[in-house]
Amino acid sequence: MFVLLLMCGCECSAQGQASSTNPVCGLTADGSNKVPSDWDTFTAPAKGGSYTDATFGCQVTRLTDGSTDFGATQYAVANYYATVDAMSADDGLIQVQRDNGSNYIIQNPYVTGQNGTAVPSGSMPGMNSGYIMWDRSNGSLFYYTTGTSLMSGTVTGRPSCLTTFNCTVTTAVVHTFSEYAGGAVSLMSETTMSVDGCHVVVEGQTAVGSSPINVFTWNICDSTKSTPYTTSCNGNVTSAADSCLHKMQIAGDNNIFMLLETSNSEVLWNGTSTV
C-alpha cells in the first residue's frame, strides 16, 4: 500500500488556501463523476516518482511505499481523514499513519526538495489517540494528548535533520486538565484546529471507559475552556472513535459538530444546547 499526494492545481499558500491565480490544472466542477481514463491500466510509479493525472492534468507524486518502507513488515500507509489537515502550516511536513496505529511524519518534496521521512515513528511522542493536530501558523508545531494533558510537539532540527531523515520532537505541556484526574483527555477523530488558530476540540473523561464524556473547546491563545457537552453514554476517550462518540468537527464559529454513535445522529453544540 502507498500514499499518493495530489498537489494543489493552483498557486496555493499554506494550509491549502488558494490565491487569485488561475488554476494550472484541473477541471471545472459540473456535478459529474470523473473516472480516470486509465483506471484499468494505470501502474503507480516507484516511491518518489511522479506522473500527470490523465483526467485532471495535475502532477501527482508518490510519497510512501508500505511494502518496502519498513523492511520485511508490510503496512497500509495513509494520511488521516480529509477533515484533518495532513500538511503542516508551511506545507513542508505531512503526517501519515500505518495500519497498526503508529504515526510518523514525512516530507513534502515540493517544499523540502527531497522525498522521505522527517520524523520516524520511533521518535514520535506517545499519545492517547492516534493522530496529531497541526498548528495553523507554525510549520513545525503540532498538538496531541497524553494522560490528562494537552501537549505540543515541535519538529526540531529543521532543515538539517531532513537530509538525514531523522528529525526529533521537542514536547511541552500546553495545559493539564486536573478535573479529569484519574481519567484522560484526547483529540477526537476527524477534527482539526479552528480557522482562527486558537481553538481545539477536546474530550475528557474522569474514568476511562466507564464514565460520561465531556466535549469542549480549549483556547490555546487565552487558556480558556468552553462549557462542556456531556454525553449520556460511557465511551473511551483514548480511542480515536468509540461506541459513544464517532467523530467531531469544529465549526467556523468554534462550535462543535458531533456524531453521536448511540443514536447515529449529528448535533451541533453551541455551548448551551444542541441544535
Give the arrangement of secondary structure elements:
Layout: E1 4-6, E2 50-52, E3 59-62, E4 77-78, E5 93-98, E6 103-107, H1 109-112, E7 117-119, E8 133-134, E9 141-146, E10 149-156, H2 160-164, E11 168-176, E12 184-186, E13 199-205, E14 212-219, E15 224-225, E16 229-234, E17 245-250, E18 256-260, E19 265-269
Antiparallel strand pairs: 1-3, 2-3, 4-5, 5-6, 6-7, 8-9, 9-10, 10-11, 12-13, 13-14, 14-15, 14-16, 17-18, 18-19
Description:
It is a single chain. With 275 residues, the protein is mainly β. The chain has a domain at 182-275. The chain is built from 2 helices and 19 strands. The strands form 5 sheets. Strands 12, 13, 14, 15 and 16 form a 5-stranded antiparallel sheet that branches. It has a 4-stranded antiparallel sheet with strand order 4-5-6-7. The protein is globular, with a radius of gyration of 20 Å. Mean pLDDT is 87; it is low at 8-19.
Give the termini separation.
41 Å
Q: Give the biggest beta sheet.
A: 5 strands, antiparallel
- Number-wise, the strands total 19
Query: Any low-confidence stretches, pLDDT <50, length ≥5?
Result: 8-19
Overall residue-averaged pLDDT value:
87
Structural class based on helices, strands and sheet pairing: mainly beta
Q: C-alpha Rg, in Å?
A: 20 Å
What is the count of DSSP helices, taking H or I runs of 4+ residues? 2
Order of helices and strands: EEEEEEHEEEEHEEEEEEEEE
Helix content: under 10%
Envelope shape: globular
Strand content: 25-35%
